[in-house]
Amino acid sequence: MSKTLKNITVKISRFNPGIQKESSFASYNVPITAGMSVLDVLDYIYSNLDSSLSYYSSCHRGYDSCCLVVVNGKITRACTTPAIDDLVIEPMRNRKVLKDLVVESDINARLTKKK
Amino acid sequence: MMEYPNKILETDVLIIGSEAAGARAAIEASKHGLDVSIITKGRMTKSGATITAIMDMSIDSRSAKKLLGLPGDERDSPELYFEDIVKSGAYMNNQKLVELHVKEAPLRAKELQDWGLRWDTVNKLPGHRFARSCMSTGVALMATLKYEVLKLNVKVFEDTMALEFLKSKGKILGVIALDLGTGNLMVFKSKSTVLATGGAAQVYLHSTTAKEMVGDGYAMAYRAGAEFVDMEFPQFMPAAYLWPPIVRGHPASANMLWTLNGWLLNKYGERFLANWDPERMEKTTRDVETRAIWNEIQEGRGSTRGGIFASLAHLPERIITDFIEDPSKAHLKWTYEAADVAKEKVMEIIPHSHFFDGGLRINEKCETNLKGLFAAGEVAGGLNGGNRLSGVAIAQTQVQGANAGKTAADYALKNPSSEEIDEKAIEDMVKKCRSSLDAKEGLSPIKTRVKVQELAWQKIGLVRNETDLKLAISEIALLKKDVPKLCTQNKSSIYNQEWVNALEIENMLCVLEMISRGALMRTESRATHVRSDYQKMDNQNWLKNIIIKQVNGEMKLTTNPLIVTRLNPIA
Questions:
Q1: What residues of A are in contact with residue B354 (Cβ under 8 Å)?
Q2: Which residues of chain B make contact with A17, given a CB cutoff of 8 A?
Q3: In CATH, which superfamily holds the domain spanning A6-114?
Q4: Which domains does chain B possess?
Q5: Which of A104, A86, A61, A20 lies closest to B51 in space, CA to CA?
Q6: FRET label pair with B100: which of B403, B432, B499, B547, CA 20 to 30 Å apart?
């Protein structure tokens, strides 16, 4: 079917509010094929390596920006960003991190601000 | 362990689903001075179908000109728009719903314009006799609606998955829901409830829609005793990308194939539409195109990855790059670049599940057969009959959203709730919903979910037959027995996607059972419902709707005469 191109190292910022005080990085070894996105990599990890990973995704089409994350230091949509080499994935900046890569939503951030 | 219920919230009107239909319903209901709450499994403007719409809202072309100031055509009328919808639906449509739709869609489009939405132009799209598709984007539509919703102080509960309706004496009293951020159970007590959860295209392996759209709303309503219509008519988009993975499920490939007169080729390089429609070839109707592609794949002439090739190799590169650089298609450009279409001159495609024509049976006021429950948008059946026309879905969200919001508000004002909530139902729900999380060992929800989607694709897909449908029904029965055996590896109750997947499986199976049983009963081919063992349309026996409802724990199917106001199918 799809030939593995190579294996990449994916470092992901993990945070579980019930257990941790601060986030820490977990490292995964992921076989990638040509034409995969960062979201495909996250889906691969979730489905095959570690189902405790939390991240947001919905449309997979670059429309809703719900999958915004920081990839190798840059803010980007996970679903439209190609996965070519090793990755460091962190949650969106300036938002409260709820778990791993999931951050507070626009509406809740707005309510928190009001208070 | 979780205590229950962690939270009881009371509201006048509860809306399940936050996107176009739900948001519009919320706006209407809050105009009546009522307390309105929305709950959504995702996040507002960041989930569901609306934001993925390219987006066209169809109204008659005359109104597009007169009301919206777009370059419409005065020869068109609501009556002609009505006829096109009913013909596309192969006469399965509830014509009372269509009458209301063509009358009110222009008003809703104007209202959106007044709220600040900009209509770019009006286009003529396939199936419409005139230019009726008012163009904007789903993202812009949702930004407009969200602004109105928040202005009206509607409460929006995001990351909140509805699990089950609360019911007493045939009346809906609210829902039990799961707060996905904490894993706590919540009870929403309401005077009236609007279901606006969209369709369930994700029950299939290949789908163009957002991943959460598996039909939770359908399944909840089914379990509560709601009636369904036309469930045998899911709609497929013939040519969305199969490869590469980054663009999988994106329909931009279909856009290019259609506009640039691309060729569909099998793995031998044969232009197989010559066997189906030698005159029109790839410009044939959508149903023939879909059937032809499915046939090539089934007979082993598809690509190694299981798709079909959409070739542009007969074109100079300049024509392809000109299309890709077109500023009006800027939002699709990244897909053509990711698939390297300019260089490869070929795209790998497969039909994708796209929309549900059927759904909860409603009347013009969006009332269901259950007291206190109203439905709007894709989750509601009847408007589109057997096959939806382009641009009707968005218009449907606005027309039905407004009507459901109004009817739900009227109901809430007339029927202040007094019934006590059944504590036992809540207690049972706590156990049921936590079973996969509390289990020590069992089946993987992730693997089981894919198994369900594969079954749907293979046996209940685009072309059906009696043998496969019967097999599917018995496999669904077996899979239902697997639901209590599901066990998540991840035991956290905070944003646990595996737990959500486990909860979705029962709902997906419920939707697939409705499609299979409806498709088995309808012994003909009509609109999007294709049977290889009954290839002809049978107007003698099948000018009727199939109604599905749970009776004494069993799925019961009956037929009902068509609802005709103006366009007689025999004429």
A1: none
A2: 494
A3: Beta-grasp domain (3.10.20.30)
A4: 238-351 (3.90.700.10), 423-558 (1.20.58.100)
A5: A61
A6: B547
Three-state SS string across B113-180, please? HHCCCCCCCEECCCCCCCCCEEECCHHHHHHHHHHHHHHCCCEEECCEEEEEEEEECCEEEEEEEEEC
Contact call for residues B83 and B382 (beta carbons, < 8 A):
no
Strand blocks (E) in B209-307: 228-229, 234-243, 263-265
For B439-452, b where at least 16 C-beta lie within 10 A, e where not — what string? beebbbbbebbebb
Cβ proximity of B210 and A59 under 8 Å:
yes
* ipTM attached to this prediction: 0.96
- Pick from B501, B510, B452, B479: which is nearest to B219 by CA? B510
* Distance (Å) from the alpha carbon of B350 to chain A's nearest alpha carbon: 16
Output the CA angle B19-B25-B29, nearest 5 degrees.
Answer: 140
The 10s digit of each residue's pLDDT in A65-74 is 899 999 999 9
**CB-CB under 8 Å, A64 with B494:** no
Q: Which parts of B465-553 are beta strand (E)? A: 530-531, 544-551
Contact A108 B250 (CB under 8 A): no
Question: Distances in Å between the alpha carbon of B83 and those of B89, B91, B152, B466?
Answer: 10, 10, 37, 33
The domain limits of chain A are 6-114
Backbone angles phi and psi of B482, in degrees to 5: -80, -20
DSSP H/E element including B95: helix B95-114
Residue type, B551: V
Which residue has tokens 């198994």? B451
**Tens digits of per-residue pLDDT, B500-525?**
999 999 999 999 999 999 999 999 99
Q: Shortest CA distance to B132 belongs to which of B67, B208, B228?
A: B67
pTM of the complete model beyond 0.90:
yes
Share of chain A above pLDDT 70, in %: 94
SS3 content of chain B, % helix, strand, coil (to 5): 40, 20, 40
Query: H-helix or E-strand containing B503?
Result: helix B497-521
What distance in Å separates the CA atoms of residue B492 and residue B182, rounded to the nearest whole number?
A: 9
User: Residue B263 and residue B281: Cα distance in Å, rounded?
Assistant: 8
A62/B489 touch (CB, cutoff 8 Å), yes or no: no
Residue from the list B52, B334, B446 with its beta carbon closest to the beta carbon of A80: B334
Helices (H), chain A: 38-44, 106-114
Residues in chain B whose Cβ is within 8 Å of chain A: 42-48, 51-52, 138-139, 150, 156, 158-159, 181, 210-212, 243-250, 304-305, 331, 334, 338-339, 446, 488-490, 492, 494-498
Are B45 and B17 in contact by the 8 Å Cβ rule? The answer is: no
Distance CA(B143)–CA(B296), nearest Å, equals 42
Contact: B494, A61; criterion CB under 8 Å: no
Closest chain A C-alpha to B477 CA, distance in angstroms = 25
pLDDT in tens, B312-329: 999 999 999 999 999 988
How far apart are the C-alpha atoms of A59 and B78, rounded to whole Å? 33
Which pLDDT belongs to residue B205? 97
- The two beta strands, B184-195 and B7-16, are parallel
